[in-house]
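Exercise (ungraded).
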Amino acid sequence: MTTIELCVRRQDRPDSRPYWQSFRVPAGSGANVLALLMALREDPVTCSGERVDPVAFEHNCMEEACGACAMLINGRPRPACSAQVADLASPVVLEPLPRFPVVRDLMVDRQRLFENLKRVRAWIALDGPWDLPVSTPRIAPRQWVADYLYSRCIHCGCCLAACPQFPDADAADAAGFVGPAALAQVRLLNAHPIGRFARTERLHAIMAAGGLSDCGNAQNCVRVCPKEIPLTTAIGELGRASTLQLLRDLFGD
Amino acid sequence: MSGRPVIVVGGGLGGLWATLTIAAAGHRVQLFSLFEVMRSHSACAQGGINAVLDTKGQHDSIDQHFVDTIKGGSYLANQPPVRALCEQAPGLIRTYERMGVSFSRTPEGLLDQRLFGGVKKRRTCFAGASTGQQLLAGLDQQVRRLEAAGQVEKWEWWEFLGIVRDQDGHCRGIVALDLRALGVQAFRADAVVLATGGLGQLYAPQTTCSTNATGAAASRVWQQGARFANAEFFQFHPTAMLGSDKTRLMSEAARGEGGRVWVPRTPGDTRDPLRIPERERFYFLEDWYPAYGNTVARDVAARAIWRVTRELGLGIAGGDRVYLDLTHLERGFVETRLGAILSIYRKFAGTDPVTRPMQIFPAAHYAMGGLWVDFEPDPATGGLRVGSARNHATSIPGLYACGECDYGYHGANRLGANSLLSASFSGRIAGAAVATWLAGLAGDCMALPAAPFAAEVARQEAINHRLRRGGATENPYVLHRELGALMTARVGVVRDNAGLDAALAELGELQRRGARLGPGESSPWANQGLVRARQVLDMIELARVMAASARARDECRGAHYKPAFEQALPADSRPGDARYEAYRARWKDNNAQWLKTSIAEWYPDGPRIRYEPVDTSLLPPEEPRDYR
């Protein structure tokens, strides 16, 4: 059992000023950041001996499948559950995920992520959710391997937090950059045998303001994605598809 | 917009299917969730979803899926719903495909299928080893499309607190807590569907379940009069990682794809596992259950691991752990088929399962029991009358339940990869039932008097007020930890009546301490301690019904194992042998007494339990389970 110092940027309400508090938390071997926060909430006393409200944070699956616990850990956006304390420099500095409005302490509101999925029409338009007496088209194993990578998105928001082009929470406007997560879903759905029927609409959505051309190619997104989704490959493929779409728009199919 | 207002609580597979089905019938859905819906625990299901496609040259059949499921659950599941579940599984899979789910493929580009536990056929469709996440994403996209079109309204960051009933006793809405502003508010609806998931947090941290799988919502309606069925049947997954914060799931797919479970033959052998030669390893599942080997049903595998560690003392280094070994399999194959769980193990245990055997132990995983729900059989098919308003109706009119929070499909033990199936299927059946219920419903919830809604809001606000009044001496996180330790120790893989009596006494003490419980914080905004404190109180109520139901059932059936009442299969006997037939006769006598559904009803002084018969109309209980 070792003792870890946590420096946490706290904020009581969305409109209040952030402040910092430090805590010393015992950590067993193999402890991750989430385990520290869970231990802390049983007995939240700061390094200066002040008893305070426990640090608010979001978590659910604790195995990097739900995306809930993403935060800034020593300056890097990542899920707290899979951040092993032994691999982190001390003190461990925790901040809420940037680019999203703070709800409280380390909790943020990621509604923007989901609004952007609506902007790019990240769905397949079924006639209805009932079963049909037909089989669906085959998909080559090679295509499946490529597509599967994009289907691993857990909507944690790390790629958006790391993206210099994704607008800040307070500057957010409806036409701001949609960000790599939504673009990767366009890549995925446009490849699907039924999803491709709406390929043109999705490409038009990302050719509009705040779309593909806002990507500054910083490549931060692909470096921080916990699921190792090749986001910049998706953006490259979409760039070529958009160029072809532009030609189709000008000259017809 | 036309149609009636309906509330769905919970945004995992069950809730999203119910939402899609009810919206497709033209009604307006308000979808409540504790968080953004795709954070739901369905995302954690890894290995796959069962459906008979018979594409692996093994002559699989719907009948065999049905038989495997019924026998796997020790005949305790009502059979018509299971029949319909198996019949509709292939259609469901094709619909998921249309939604864009990235199922793994055969070289011919068809859906691939893998082997899972308790069966002999490859019947499990999968998307790598992240199947639940993929299915949830497909449904989430469909619901988002309806949301963008104004047919569905999401209420994320709200916690369900209770239902509201009209003067006829019909459920006509809910009361929920705004998890940020902490306001308590009533919402009217002409029907309510609960799809609030499981309750593994009763065993925290020794559970594979997400931290929000508290069972609190089911507990709340149980305390409001809904029946709770088969509470004593709770699954312990044989292969969970070790961990002090959580015991993470290592999918049954690891064994389905060829993984082997073993311990060193010598007690306390501390050698590096890679240095232990083959002849000095004990592959106990293969030894004890040669016909099924490592993919024996989960209850059997969990008990075998229990026996080899706790009774034979063969656990690794004498502890609660055995090896789950993939190192003999081809690396590329393992990476393609199981990449997602390999990544989890590497990140959380720090070693690579491709080169070193994993260390695992059973952990609390899945509630077979849950809210009692009705069904209407279809005599023509033996399955369900689809569209009957009785299907998935709880004992409270207008209140439906689907997914893990109901008790419908798995009897005394669930087969692997049947949970994604039952969550999906039941959500859809419940949605269809709601549409029928609404067609026959008189009156409009919007025209009801305000009094019952205001009364329920006041009752719930009083609970918040009591918890926040100050002077509390108990902390919700500490109380939760003690509950988990108690349940793990006394209502676990192996049970005995003395331990269960002690559990009930200790739960009574926890309940008394609950009267002194506070939130552990004073914040008027997004106060997580208040929310957890409320959940813990309701979890203690659920723990009482689980322990009491387990105490009342003096037999061994599926996951409910009381060795004092065990009828062991005679060793080296086969059907036709005198000893086997004598066993079969004893087994049938026991069924005459105990093959029945337990039904618990809430009373202030503790749960009262009675029993109702099981519908065994399609497969009479003639063949005992035998995986040897």
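Further reading is listed at the end of the chapter. For now, observe: The mean pLDDT of chain A is 96. The CA atoms of residues 125 and 234 of chain A lie 22 Å apart.
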